[in-house]
Amino acid sequence: MKINRSKVVIVGAGLVGSSTAFSLITQGVCDEVALIDINEERAQGEVMDLRHGIDYLNRNVRVKIGAYDECGDADIVVITAGPPPKAGETRLDTLEASKKIVRSIVEPVMKSGFSGHFLIISNPVDIIAQYVWKLSGLPKQQVLGTGTALDSARLKSFIGDMLHVDPRSVHAYALGEHGDSQMVAWSHVTVGGKSLFEILDDNGRRFSRVDLDQLAHETVKAGYEILERKGNTYYGIASTAVGIIKAILYDENRIIPVSTLLEGEYGVHGVFCGVPAILNRSGVKEVIELHLTEEEAEAFHRSAEVLREFVQN
To answer: In CATH terms, is domain 7-145 a member of 3.30.930.10?
Structure first.
C-alpha cells in the first residue's frame, strides 16, 4: 500500500520564504516542507529554528534542507527568490534580475522530473509567472502567481476598517497587475451580500467623506509603505501563499484572485494577470470573468497592456 505524502518546496529562505514555511508548519498544511537557498547556511539555520518549535504545534511536519534533484515528487514548488525593489523603484524595475534568478531555479527543478505546480511570489509576479510557465513547459493551470490575492486582502482590510466590520465579511477584488497599474472592481464589492455602493448611499451622512479612488491608491501603495517602515513585506504574502497552497492541496475549489494566463477572458489574450479563479488540485480550474463596467474594463485593459509591454521586451 502506498501512502501519499504532501510536499511543498520553497526556493528562497529569506524573510518571505521562511515566513511561508513557518505559516505552512504552524497550520499543519502539508507533510513535508523543504527549503532551498543559495545561502545554505541561512537555509540550515531556518530549518533548525522551524524544527525546534514542532513540539508545540498540532502536527509533526517534516522540515528539511532541500535540493533541486529532490523536487520530482513535490506537489508545489514555491519561488520566492528575487531582489526587493529599492527606494524609488517599482516591482517592474526588478524584472531583469528576477528573470536570471528564476531561470537558474526552474531549469534544475524541471530536470528532476517535477510535474506539480509552480507558485510564484517573486516580483514582478505576473511577468515572472509567465516566464516560469514558458520555461517549464507545464500546462498553464499548473503555473500561477500570487497576483492580486494580497492586494485584494489589503483592500478588504481597508474597507472593513472603514465600515467597522470583519474584513472576511467583505468581498472585493483588485485586478490586473500586482503593481501600480492595478484597478479595483468597485461594481462587485459587497459587504454581507450588500453592494458597497448601496451601503454608501444608505448611510450618506456616516460615509460622506469616503473616497474610493483614495482607497484604491492606498491599496496599491500599501506594500511600499510597509517596505519603507520595516524594509520588507513578508507576513501578509506568506499567509496569502499558504491560502493558495491549501486551496490546491485540499482540492478546495476556492476562488482567489491569482495571476494566471488569460486567453480571451476580459478581452485579454496571452498575458498573466491577477483575476479571480477557482483553485483546486488541478491548479487554476477556471477563471471567473466578472462583468465589469465600461470604465473598469478600460482600466483593466490598461493594466494588462502595461504587463504585455514588459513580456514582449
So the answer is: no
